[in-house]
From TrEMBL:
This is Uncharacterized protein DUF1638. InterPro entries: DUF1638. Residues 50-207 form the DUF1638 domain. It holds the Pfam family DUF1638. It comes from the Bacteria.
Amino acid sequence: MTAPDDRMLTETGLTPAGRGRVLVIGCGALAHEILALKRANGWHHLDLACLPAIWHNHPERIAPGIREAVTRHRAAYDKILVAYADCGTGGDLARTCAELGVEMIEGPHCYAFFDGLDAFAARAGDEITAFYLTDFLARQFDAFVWRPLGLDRHPELTETYFGNYDRLVFLAQTDDPALDARARDCARRLGLAYERRATGYGDLARFLQERA
């Protein structure tokens, strides 16, 4: 399939093709990574549906959105997997998935499962003042950070929002010098030191490989 557009993934999500046996319902911010894993592994039986990635800024919408999507698609698939971590739902998503009988990926957020849950937890104490980006968020920095916080209109507020951070850590899923430059520029705009960490697809790959 044609690679989905980031703006569409941010605002409206992705509708499944309806040709597979296994459906992954995930965040739009993970669509490119899941589709790359599908291509690399030849998972022709796997379909992908995505909820709008911008719901990361409105986590109260995620659990109800998953409930609606599972209910709508369940009859068409043998298995449904949920490619979301908790993502700020305060446990609501895990409770919803347990009630619906579908499995979700472990972790507090995508930063942790891209980095690897064990590695991320081991670094937690040293990185309490780190701000994270993934490939998708580096591309969509303005849509998720700059404009929602009003920094496009009032850049003087950057210190108010980010004064307690000391670095931006780019968790890179791919080796893309242009994307590295974008992430570095995000760090500059926020007044933070820059660090790039190559994670690949982390625990997301293992979750899908073991269950798809």
